[in-house]
């Protein structure tokens, strides 16, 4: 698996001249290769769904459509985004908490394949909407495991969180689902951890979840068609060349499968989208303040919130540019540690803190790698009304703009 690192020449060729550089660059060809490399080792018949929340740009969705089994969404807006970008035939499943009647209307109107239900109230909402529409809506019950669960960057289950139905309450939820005549309970959904970098440990968690699904189905008379094992396949922002071992994960899970078992689904986002986009920012100023060095960028967390939300120093490289047109001496910092800060009026607008650099000058570019997931989509774009970045998509030698 590669990592997208556009050169200074590529950036110059595709970005608009006459303004400071601020752009997301996506390599869609590499994105497709990434998706295929993730699906190839999986057991036959397993469905690999792209979690749209990671990056919902239509260019990304269209690029991935032939490479994945379908799309996992978490809102009515994401349903509409997939339908508009990809079309009416794409498979969609919906999960997430805090469902509304409008969500139910949209999923029924737009052919969502299955709803992952996270509470008794959501069961009643879904049943009422399906009854009004005169259809039967397939569902999975999302299980919040009793725990404990393996460590990962984020934990959605095995603890007191807002996600899913606690394991002890699943029998009551099954009984309620059975009374909801316009719903069809097809199985169970587990999305317990996010960004687990232990492939073997993650396989063990998935095996335990699969065993629990079988046990619940046998005990409560559920016809177990589907077990959705969520996502959570990790990336490592501290080591951009590290990769989650999907082949080892699949090998470790395989002994827990059987030919007559339920269909498996996985719903991954970050590991699909992260690696094949870069965020480019021009250095607008450099300065020292109270013993620390700062480089101020055209851009920041209002475009790329991930480093702030995860409180990490995002991986980057400095791309030198030699042109300097001003009559004064070019400001620079050399052989020091630098904090890369954005253009917002808040000290929280930081993408990397106190990182060593050999030289950084006004006019150079900072290239943040691994910028394809949970960047633009989760950012507060219009704070201070700064201009949006260019969003560029390289596809078979052509460049498209968002």
Automatic annotation (TrEMBL):
Residues 278-372 form the Orn/DAP/Arg decarboxylase 2 C-terminal domain. GO terms for biological process: lysine biosynthetic process via diaminopimelate; polyamine biosynthetic process. One of its GO terms (molecular function) is diaminopimelate decarboxylase activity. Residues 29-274 form the Orn/DAP/Arg decarboxylase 2 N-terminal domain. The modification N6-(pyridoxal phosphate)lysine is found at residue 53. Its cofactor is pyridoxal 5'-phosphate. It comes from the Bacteria. InterPro entries: Ala_racemase/Decarboxylase_C (IPR009006), De-COase2_C (IPR022643), De-COase2_N (IPR022644), Orn/DAP/Arg_de-COase (IPR000183), Orn_de-COase (IPR002433), PLP-binding_barrel (IPR029066). The active site is at 345 (proton donor). Keywords: Pyridoxal phosphate. Belongs to the Orn/Lys/Arg decarboxylase class-II family. This is Decarboxylase.
